[in-house]
Amino acid sequence: MNFHFARLSIVLILVFAGLKAFPFDFERDTVSCVDRIYEKNMKAVRMHLQDWEVSYPVMELYGEVGLEFSFDQVESQPQDYYYTVMHCTYDWKPSNIMFVDYADGFEENEIRNYEESQSTYVQYTHFSLSLPNEDLQLKLSGNYLLIVFVKEPEKRIVCTRRFMVYENIVEVEGRVNSNVLGEFKKEFQKLDFVIKPKKYPIYNPLDELKVTLVQNYQYDEAYTDMQPSFVDNGAITFDWEDKYLFNAGNEYRYFNFNNLELNSEYVENIEYHKPYYYIDLVPSKTKYFEPYASAEDINGGYVIKTNRRNNNNFPEIQSEYAIVHFRLNSPSMLANASVYLYGGLTNYEFSPQYKMKYNMETRCYELMAFLKQGYYNYRYVVVSEGEGAAMDRYFMEGSHRQTENDYQLFVYHRNPSESYDRLINYTKFNSRN
């Protein structure tokens, strides 16, 4: 108890002294509010609702179900990891409010829950963290950034993860519309919706409301400041013909290697060469010219699971790591463009470690990825080279208006008397519903 009072006193001293009460020496304005992993030995970094692996990192303020954050530290001595949370604006920049305004508890906490892997060739330590917890509780809705850092041998950020905390205090009604007119009708989807404030005071919707719409957690293509098409006293309507359209894309490719003794669908070969398992996937081909084919995917995510040696009760610490060989058939190398592996397994980024190399002998783009046992969704994206590089998710995959997609709608409100963006509604829509 004395320890807790001592830490609380330090926080109060910093606040009253007008200093930046942040866990270590860095400028909060320079922190990138994105999902990012800065350490090569951090693997399987995930954040989702407790007991729901394929959910998005969105929880209700003071709700019954919190969030679970986890990662593995692979093939190295476990470190002491610490974390803090930072409130962000609707467009993912650091908020101008102090920690004591948006949270109760301690600003800096250690991640104390960890376990060593069991009966695996690749040794790792599995760390997990629940939010909220006895050390930290959140008081405001909005966007948040979880910052994980170490203190030794130097103080540095090792991982950042975005999550959202919402209040459903306004109503939203809507549906995904694939009947898009004109030149977009074959490949695009849009969300038509209405916000009904009811008794919640919104005096100037055009200035006070900020609406963000995301497809399958792909923030690089999100609409972050949508404008209504019509406003009256009882409803704020968003129903544009061609202003906020999403390329529907295609169903994700997938594979499963929860069983290392048998080849499952899309797995061509499994071999063990000390110290790793090697998984060869069946070579893929472009799907751009193929007709639409329905498939049960999880919109880019992945699930950790194993049947190895009948150990499937605790997949977080019993799953093996393996080197997975991806191959994409291509008659020739693309000019002025690169091919990347993409999905939840790449943190929804086109980072250098997931850039594929063209093999002249096999006429394939190839990549070796170090992955934990489970079921994975993925796709191949093309990124143009040079200044103004752009990602094309559809060059290799094709696009069809029938594709099943999740759409996450976030409604933020900035009251003129408040200094933060309050998340007053979160609704998830699916193109099949």
CATH topology of the largest domain: Immunoglobulin-like
Would you report the number of β strands? 30
- Residues in helices, as a percent range: under 10%
Separation, N- and C-terminal Cα atoms? 52 Å
User: How many distinct domains?
Assistant: 3
Radius of gyration: 23 Å
CATH superfamily of the largest domain: Immunoglobulins
Strand content: 35-45%
Low-confidence stretches: 1-21
- Put simply, the count of helices is 4
CATH level-1 class of the largest domain: Mainly Beta
CATH architecture of the largest domain: Sandwich
Helix-and-strand structural type: mainly beta
Largest sheet: 6 strands, mixed
- Give the CA-based shape: globular
Mean pLDDT: 91
Task: Please give a structural write-up.
Strands 1, 3, 5, 7, 11 and 12 form a six-stranded mixed sheet that branches. The chain contains four helices and 30 strands. The chain has three domains: 2-12 and 27-166, Sandwich (Immunoglobulin-like); 171-248 and 404-430, Immunoglobulin-like, CATH 2.60.40; 253-392, no CATH class. With 433 residues, the chain is mainly β. The longest helix has 15 residues, at 2-16.
Short note summarizing the structure:
The chain has 433 residues and is mostly beta strands.
Summarize the helices and strands and which ones pair or pack.
Elements: H1 2-16, E1 36-37, E2 42-49, E3 58-60, E4 67-74, E5 82-88, H2 99-102, E6 103-105, E7 109-110, E8 113-116, E9 124-131, E10 136-138, E11 142-150, E12 156-166, E13 171-177, E14 188-196, H3 205-208, E15 209-215, E16 230-231, E17 236-238, E18 246-247, E19 253-256, E20 267-273, E21 276-281, E22 302-304, H4 315-318, E23 321-329, E24 337-342, E25 357-359, E26 364-372, E27 374-384, E28 391-392, E29 406-413, E30 422-430
Parallel strand pairs: 3-12, 21-23
Antiparallel strand pairs: 1-12, 2-4, 4-9, 5-7, 5-11, 6-10, 8-9, 11-12, 13-14, 14-17, 14-18, 15-29, 16-17, 19-27, 20-21, 22-27, 23-26, 24-27, 25-26, 27-28, 29-30
